[in-house]
Design goal:
The structure is a single chain. With 467 residues, the protein is α+β, with helices and mostly antiparallel strands. The protein folds into two domains: 6-30 and 63-252, no CATH class; 338-462, no CATH class. 19% of the residues lie in helices and 19% in strands. The protein is built from nine helices and 20 strands. Strands 3, 4, 5 and 6 form a four-stranded mixed β-sheet that branches. A two-stranded antiparallel sheet has the order 1-2. A two-stranded antiparallel ribbon has the order 7-8. It is globular.
Length: 467
């Protein structure tokens, strides 16, 4: 399963410098465990905390998906309500409530388009969008229109399931924030650009084969309009056809169409999270397909499965386990050895339908809740103050806003600690051996020059970026 939300979301809302890529869920332990991890001295196995849910039972919500420390609007009420409450759900939204309303709108869209998601799972993915864009809602350089914000929230909720990207192309959302920026200016999100512009990411080489992604404002243009690097970007549903002279925006391939020379409509670039379509190679050609869901055929002669599903041994798409449900781990051992622990971390990271890395560690983690493989459960990553570590019922990372201290030196021996807040820029840090457990806040890297202790620094600012 490969929950795809990195590129389209980063291009829509992402920060000016990305310090990490979204791993592909089909990867091996290297995606979850750093390559230089080494075993060390043994440690005693602590008593693990009792799990919050057993297999097959409903687990608690993802602890509201993440702590909201440092977010000024975290407790502000959303200016919407049920139909009989007398509150217009599309009515004006005060700026203090705007990010919460945005999150609720994206969550509602996800739930409608992906009914397999539990509410807490949809909220976790939506919280990713909110955290990526939170600075926009409080940016004093952006003029805010609360009437447009209310209409924007309802427009997001009603958006087609195969098209929700570049919110500047939605009239109400475009009118919500007014920027003084101009074409070509640096940016971190679409809303930092002028009306009907997108923040187009461009890779900046930083040495050592690494790249840092910076943004600049480009106009969003329509069918047959000139496009390309430094000119304009195409609206959702269109792509820049460089075969023409000059390149122009042309329709993307529809379901059943050949997609070897053009992208598919409703794939990654058109959809924030969980795109319904993709390009699939079979029968000697590339063809746009609807991604398979429950019971649909999959494999070498059929389409891929939707990201919430996996292709089982019978060649059909089967739903991945969700929050509070039983999940599979590969070893039937009470105390795994070093190599088994590596594999358990990788499987745990990607073993649930909303993986642990989603939303800046807001998803779920498959962890052994018994002493054998037969008892494992998809549980929310722990919050600040809750137990974390390696062992029964534990996760080796914390939800967005925290990290598990001590794992950077435990080197895969059984270990238990409590989640603590992520470190801020300039703080002294120790790089984690588990990529899911970076000690620095999102957008920062724990790094140094070898002559001083590592500190949390901006990847772009220090010239190392991301791969």
């Amino acid at each position: 399963m490969r929950l795809r939300l990195g590129l389209s979301l980063t291009f829509l809302l992402g920060t000016a410098c990305s310090s990490a890529t979204v791993p592909d869920a089909g990867t091996t332990a290297d995606a979850a465990v750093r390559a230089d991890a080494r075993p060390n001295a043994d440690a005693a196995l602590p008593d693990a905390p009792a799990p919050d849910a057993t297999p097959g039972e409903d687990a608690p919500a993802l602890a509201d998906a993440a702590p909201d420390a440092g977010t000024p609007d975290a407790e502000a009420p959303v200016d919407s309500g049920p139909a009989d409450s007398g509150v217009d759900p599309c009515g004006p939204v005060p700026r203090a409530s705007s990010s919460a309303r945005f999150e609720a709108a994206v969550s509602a869209w996800l739930t409608r388009c992906n009914p397999e998601l539990q509410p807490a799972e949809a909220l976790a993915a939506a919280r990713f969008a909110r955290l990526a864009s939170d600075s926009v809602f409080t940016d004093p350089n952006l003029t805010y229109d609360e009437v447009s914000a209310g209409a924007c929230g309802c427009a997001i909720e009603a958006a087609p399931c195969d098209r929700l990207a570049k919110l500047r192309t939605i009239a109400a959302c475009d009118a919500t924030f007014v920027s003084t920026a101009t074409t070509g200016d640096d940016c971190g999100s679409d809303f930092e650009c002028p009306t009907q512009h997108a923040c187009v990411q461009r890779p900046i080489a930083t040495g050592g084969g690494n790249q840092c992604f910076l943004g600049y404002c480009q106009p969003i243009v329509g069918l047959d309009d000139p496009c390309g690097d430094g000119i304009a970007t195409c609206e959702p549903g269109l792509y820049c056809n460089f075969q023409g002279d000059p390149p122009t925006c042309r329709p993307k391939a529809a379901i059943g169409d050949e997609c070897g020379q053009q992208p598919c409509a409703g794939a990654d670039d058109d959809v924030l999270v969980l795109p319904p379509n993709d390009c699939f190679d079979y029968k000697g050609r590339s063809e746009c397909q609807v991604l398979g869901r429950a019971g649909d055929p999959c494999g070498e002669t059929s389409a891929y499965c939707h990201d919430l599903y996996q292709c089982d041994d019978s060649g059909t798409c089967a739903i991945q386990p969700g929050l509070g449900q039983a999940c599979a781990t590969p070893f039937d051992v009470a105390m795994p050895d070093y190599d088994q622990t590596l594999a358990l971390i990788s499987v745990g990271t990607f073993g649930c339908r909303v993986p642990a890395f989603v939303g800046g560690n807001l998803g779920t983690y498959c962890t052994q809740t018994g002493t054998t493989t037969g008892v494992a459960t998809c549980l929310p990553l722990p919050l600040v103050g809750q137990p974390c570590g390696l062992g029964q019922g534990l996760a080796p990372a914390c939800s967005g806003g925290g990290y598990c201290p001590g794992l950077e030196t435990s080197e895969f021996a059984p270990f238990m600690a409590a989640c603590v807040p992520s470190l801020t820029e300039g703080s002294t840090c120790t790089p984690s051996i588990i990529s899911l457990n970076d000690p620095c806040a999102p957008g920062l890297l724990c790094t140094g020059n070898g002559k001083a202790l590592p500190t949390c620094q901006s990847g772009c600012g220090i010239g190392i970026g991301v791969e």
